[in-house]
Amino acid sequence: MHLTQIARWPGKSPVTPGAPAHPAAYHMLDVAAVAEELLADHPRRALYCLLIALHDLGKIGEVFRRALSEGVVQDRRHWEVTEAWLHDPQILALLLQHLGGQNQALLPLVAAIAGHHGRPPTAEIPRHLDAMRSRAGTQAHDDALDFVRACLTLWPEARLDGLRQREAKALSWHLAGVTTVADWVGSNAAWFPATPATQTLAEYLDVARRIAPMALHEAGLLPPAPRADPLFDFALRPMQRAARDIALPLGPMLAIIEDETGAGKTEAAFLLLQRMLCAGKGQGAYFALPTMATADAMFRRARNIVGGLFQDAPSLTLAHGRAGLSVDFREVQNTAPGSDAPVCGPWLVESRRRALLADIGVGTIDQALMAVLPTRFATLRNWGLSRKVLIVDEAHELGDPYMAHELAVLLRLHAMQGGSAILLTATLPLGLRARLSQAFAEGAGQGYCCDDDPAYPSLSIPGGAAWRAFDRAGPGRGPVSVRRLACAEDALALLAGHAAAGAACVWVRNAVDEAIAAAEALRARGIPADLLHARLTLYDRKRIEARMMARFGRDGVDRAGRVLVGTQVLESSLDCDFDVMVSDLAPVASLIQRAGRLWRHMDLRPAADRPVAAPLLHVLAPDPAQVTDDRWLQDTLGAGAWVYPVAEQWRTAMVLDQAGAIRAPDNLRALIEAVHGPDAGPVPAALERAEIEAEGEAYARHTRARHATIRIEDGYRDGGGGSEDVDYPTRLGQEMRVLLLLRRVDGALRFWAEGMDAGEAAALSEVSASARRLARLELPDQEAPEFAVFRKDWPEWRKAAVTLCVVGEDGAICKGLAYDGEMGLLFTIVPQPAAT
User: How many independent structural domains does the chain possess?
Assistant: First the structure.
C-alpha cells in the first residue's frame, strides 16, 4: 500500500484543529499491535491479529472521509462498512486464498471484529452490504483491497485451516471482546499520537509494536507473573488445607467449595486461586458477590491479600453501581504507581465497563452476568472474565430460576473460552450443583461426570478430584438448637429479657415494615434497639452499618444489652456476632445463613463468657401442624409472610421441628435437601394451590431467562445484541422507584447527604422503594419550579428515573410518606398485605 493511499483515508479527527489526522491504516495497525500483546499465548494469535488489523476497514471510504472533514452524517456506521468490505467477492477470495478454509468459518469472525463498538452488525446480507460498498467508492475499494493484501504479508502465518463454522461461532464471542479492548487502547492519542503518512505499513507496525506494551502497562492490562509464596501466616483450617493440597486437573476446571458459614471458605478460595494462577488457569480473578455490601466487604479483605498472589503489584478494581462511593476503592486509586500495593489507574476507572479488565476485580455477580445478556459491550465483559478465574461467592444466593440460568450460561461460555471458576457456598442444593457443573463441563468440552455425593463439607472438582474427609476444626459453638416462637409478642418478651441480662441480640425480619415496627416496640419497652434495612439512603445505611460493626462486629464493644433489628441485609453482608437470635421463618438455606451470625467468634467470646448457656435460634412461625389455608403465615409474620414461597416456608418449619437443631456441618445437607431437593415431602392440601402457582412462576422465570440470555451457539452476529443494560435485568424482582431526598436549608434545596461534593452527595441521598406502593401516593410535583431549576442539567433518562422529594423538618415528604435518618423511609399509611 503506497503512502499516498495511506494518507488518503483519515482514521481519526485531529486532536487540535489544523493538526494532521491519524491515517486509518496506521490506527488499524495500532490496534493490531495491542492485540498481539493481549494474545501472546493464544493458539490462533496470528489469525486474530490479522483480522483485528482489518477492524476499521470501513473507514476507507468516501462516506467516512466526508463525515470527518465535512460533518456529513453517515447512513451506515464505519464498522458496518467494515463487514461490507470483507464480504466483497474480491477481498473475500483474497483472504480465503491465503488463509485456507471456508467462508462459513471466516464470516462469523468478520462479524466479530466489525462489531467492536459494542454491538454486532445487523445489516441485511447481501443487499445492504452491496449498497455500502457502492457508496464507499471505487477508489476506496481498490485501496481497501491493497490494505488487506498488505496485512496478509504482515501476518503470513495466519491460517483458517481446520476451523469449522461451529468453532468459529464460538470463537466470535472472544474475538469481539479482545477487538474492543484493543481498539480502546489503540485509540488513545496519548499513547498512539497522530502520525503523518511517511512510513510504510511494515515500518509503522514496528513503531506500534514498541508502543503497545507501554500503553497496556499504563492501562493496567498487563498482568504480573504469579507468585507461589505462602499467602497466610496462620495455621490453616481443614477446608483451607484441602484447597492447598487437592490435585488440579489439566485444562479448565470448576471447583466447588461447600462448607458452613465461618469455616474459612474465602481464604480457601484464595489458596486455590493462587495454585490455579501458577498452573496457568488464569491471569487474574474476579470475585462475584451477591450484593454491593458483600462486594465492599470482600474488597476490603482482598486488597490486603491479592498482592501476595503476584510478583508485582496487580491492578485492582471494585465493580458495582456505587463503587465510586467506596473509601477503600478511592484509596486504591490514589496508590502511587510503582508501590507494592494494588493500584487502579485512571484508564480503568474512566469507564465502569472496564472494571472487569483489571488483574483482580471484586464486584457484584450482576457485572459478570451482563456478559451473557444481549447488551452493549457484553463481549468486553466476557473477554475480561475469560482471562480470569471466576470466583462466585454465596453461590446459593443464585438459586432463583432466572439467575440460576444466567449463571449456568456464564459458566458454559467461560469454560468454552478456557476460563476456570470457583463456587463458594454454604447451602447449595445438590440439584443446582449438578446443573452448574454440567454447564461448565459442556463449555469445556468435557464429558460430564455426575457427582451426587451428599458429603458435607466438600471440595470437589467435577470430573476430577474431590476432598470430603475433613478433620474437625477444634472447639466451636456446637449445635444450634431451634425453638419456635408462636407470636411477635413472645419474640419481644424474649429479646427484652435477654437484653436486660446483658446479651447482644438480633431479630432478623423478612420485611422492612415489620422490622421498623419491631424496633419501635422494643424501644417502647425501654430496650436499646438499632435498626438496619435496605430502605435507608446509602448515606444513612453506611453510617448505621459502621456503628453496628463497631458494636456487633468481630472486635465490637458496647454490645451488651442491645438489640439489632434488621432484614435480609444481615444474612451475609455483615460479619456480626450475637448471643441471642430471633428470626422470622424463612427457607432453611436463609435460616442457616442467619444462624451463622449466632455465636460466631468463639475465639474472642467463648461459651463461658456468653450471657446465655448455648446457641439457640428462635424462629417466629405458626405451628406447621395447623394449616387451614394458604394464609397460614400472615397473622404471625404480616408482610413478611409473602417474601418467600409458602411451601418452602412450611417445609422448613416441619424439618426444623423434627430436627430440633442445626448441627453444622453434620445435618446441613439433609436440611437443605429436605426443603429444596427433588424428594422434598408433600405440603398440606391447603398449600397445594400456592405451591403449584409458585412452580408456575419459577417456570416462567426460567423461560424468561432463556429468552434473555445470549445464544452462544449462534455466534456473536446472530446470538448477541446491542441493547442498553437496563433493557435486560440481571435479576428479577418487584419494580422499584428511586427517590432522591433533599433538605431545604435557608430556603435552598440541598442533598440529604451532607459534607461532600455534589456527585457523591446525590448518590448517597437516594433511596429505593416499591414502585407499586409509591404509585398510591401523591408524590411531590416534579414540574414544580424549584425542582425544574434543580434538575435543569439532568439528562432525560435521569429525569424519568429519579423522583425528587423534599424531607420536611418533621420528616414528612407527602401524605403517607416520611423519612427518618434512623428509621428509614416510612409508609405512614400501611396497606393490608396481600398474597402475591
Answer: 4
Cα distances (angstroms) measured from residue 775 to each of 732, 772, 780: 20, 5, 12
Mark which of 219, 251, 280 sits at the end of a domain: 219
In tens, the pLDDT along 507-549 reads: 999 999 999 999 999 999 999 999 999 999 999 999 999 999 9
Tell me the C-alpha distance between 201 and 26, whole Å: 7
Query: Contact at 8 Å (CB) between 265 and 257?
Result: yes
| Assigned domain for 689 exists | no
Distance from C-alpha of 267 to C-alpha of 287, rounded to nearest angstrom: 13
Of 713, 748, 624, the closest CA to residue 169 belongs to 713
* 350 class by beta-carbon count within 10 Å (0-12 exposed, 13-18 middle, 19+ buried): exposed
Helix, strand, or coil (residue 263): coil
Instruction: Give the list of residues 6+ apart from residue 349 with CB closer than 8 angstroms, or none.
Output: 317, 333
The beta-carbon contacts of 240-244 under 8 Å, at least 24 apart in sequence, are 240/264, 240/267, 240/268, 240/271, 242/268, 242/459, 242/467, 242/470, 243/268, 243/269, 243/271, 243/272, 243/275, 243/459, 244/271, 244/272, 244/275
3-state secondary structure of 790: helix
Entry pTM: 0.94
Assign 17 a pLDDT band (cuts: 50, 70, 90): confident
C-alpha cell at 784: 414544580
Residue range(s) defining the domain that contains residue 54:
3-219
Same domain, 576 and 634: yes
In a shared domain, residues 182 and 260: no
* pLDDT tens column, 546-584: 999 999 999 999 999 999 999 998 987 678 999 999 999
Is 767 part of a structural domain of the chain?
A: yes
Pull the grid cell for residue 345. Answer: 489507574
Name the pLDDT band for 77 (thresholds 50, 70, 90): confident
pLDDT above 60 (res 473): no
Residue 100: Cβ-neighbour burial (10 angstroms; 0-12, 13-18, 19+): middle
Place of cell 472533514: 69
The rounded distance, in Å, linking the Cα atoms of 341 and 366 is 27
> Can you count the helices (H) and strands (E) in the chain?
34, 24
The H or E element containing residue 384 is helix 378-386
Would you say 257 and 424 are in contact if contact means Cβ atoms under 8 Å apart? yes
Looking at 622, 639, 662, the residue that finishes a domain is 662
**Beta-bridge mates of residue 583:** 508, 619
Maximum distance among all alpha carbons in the chain? 90
| Cα 732 from Cα 729, distance rounded (Å) | 7
Same domain for 245 and 373? yes
Mean pLDDT calculated for residue range 585-606: 93
Both 522 and 377 in a single domain?
no
Q: Is 727 inside a domain boundary?
A: no
Check residue 474 and give its pLDDT.
57
The interaxial angle of helices 668-676 and 646-659, nearest 10 deg, is 150
DSSP reduced 3-state for 463: coil
Beta bridge partners of 749: 744
